[in-house]
């Protein structure tokens, strides 16, 4: 299969990482090049090139069997590609993506122009984008995670003797970063540390007391190898998101056995079952999040049970090999439809 992947971003956001991780696992069995829309920094460019995947700003469509358009940010290019090649559109965005469509960032006709649309969650198809799905050209392929299990040194921010809470991903209000901070403040426990790992958005710049600055850390964006170390050495993951899919951070935590305290937003209950493989709190409720984090802090047996069940969920639903194979089948079906 000769595929051209089209992506606006090469950053460490969830959609960009999903594409990078997929492409590096299917080459050299399949041929893949990447057409970059030059939106934002080229953070993953070196990683792509190290994996033998060319990163280009221009491409000849006739050289490929199929085009894989990644995220809604490629919607403006999709219709031009679809006129010449079968196109699979991999849509990762939750509710804010629907707002992009309504704001006119691209024509809603792109949904009908795509040969195949892949959503990582059924919730997107039935709740978020339903009004634009005018034909049965969509399918569900759940995302997977593949954290390298190799033992890694403890990051300096993860201090032994503390209960270390990790929030992983973009440090912005949409992800509920303020709710985790509010929950930690409610705990009022000097033995609790909060570590934010990810690029920091200007909409979240809280004022911290001198004492809080010793326990609340903004570690910044990290490589995949560094993220694996935080996942291995922290005690709990906080994901009180206000708008998300089943975040990569959740799937990675399930894989490594890190207990998850999340919101019950949108599609998250498709993966997380409260008190079985994670703890959930209502969206926007810092008090309930604090209660869940306190339960994790105070009950090692609970942490162990949630971790074991979470790893079972990962194996059954979110392992990377299963996700890769399903997406490859969707691409093969897309090629077949284009030839019909």
What's this entry about, in short?
This protein is 38% helix and 17% strand. With 340 residues, the chain is α/β, with parallel strands linked by helices. The chain folds into 2 domains: 2-144 and 320-339, Rossmann fold; 163-318, Rossmann fold (3-Layer(aba) Sandwich).
Question: How would you describe this structure to a colleague?
Answer:
There is one protein chain. The strands form two sheets. Strands 3-2-1-4-5-6-7 form a seven-stranded parallel sheet, with helices on both faces. It is globular. The protein has helices at 14-26, 45-50, 75-82, 95-102, 110-113, 122-128, 177-187, 224-233, 248-256, 286-298, 300-318, 320-339, and strands at residues 2-7, 31-36, 54-56, 66-70, 87-90, 116-119, 138-140, 163-168, 192-197, 216-220, 236-239, 260-263, 279-281. The chain has twelve helices and 13 strands. α7 (177-187) crosses α10 (286-298) and α9 (248-256) crosses α11. α1 links the parallel β1 and β2. The protein folds into two domains: 2-144 and 320-339, 3-Layer(aba) Sandwich (Rossmann fold); 163-318, Rossmann fold. With 340 residues, the chain is of the alpha/beta class.
